[in-house]
Amino acid sequence: MPISIVSDWDVRLRAHFWRALQQRMGTDLRFTTAHMPNSNGKVEHVNAVLGDILRSMCTFAGKEWERNLILAEFAMTSSKCSATGLTPSFVNLAREPQVPANLGKPSLDVPAAEELADAMIATITHTRDTIERAKRKYEKENAGSRRPVEAVNASDQVLFSCKNLNLKMVACKLTSRYVGSFKILAAVPGTGSYK
To answer: In terms of domains, do 123 and 78 share one?
Structure first.
């Protein structure tokens, strides 16, 4: 069971049953704030890359794109992660998987097998290229766009922006831009988020 689950404020995830079940299983539910992608940036980044890969697979494989999902997964798990320098396969298995392109030519000459193997290798290569393009795209988009985060410590008092809150007020122009103050209970490690 996971130690914690970071999610949005979806009604199904806030349901009394779900919260009671996760509490019984020892899982800490951590809800993010709306319109704050940096509260769960790693997942947002992976989802963006997955979206690019799936769009690319639909274009590359046409109507048979779902048959190639396993090959796309293989390409993803055998691509190096920029943070660790390791592939997810190596992290999970402590060894790299065999890549069909590295195995060489078989001694048997079966054209249908050759054709299928070539198609599989082309799909894996295409997916890896798409992953690299997506990584470069998101690194370029995020380069220099983030401002440094001020250090906030536990027990500090902070204000919360009303910009994306759906407050039911008569005169929205006259409402305060910030609400609070709220006490910081703890920092969520590695996320830049706080409880």
So the answer is: yes
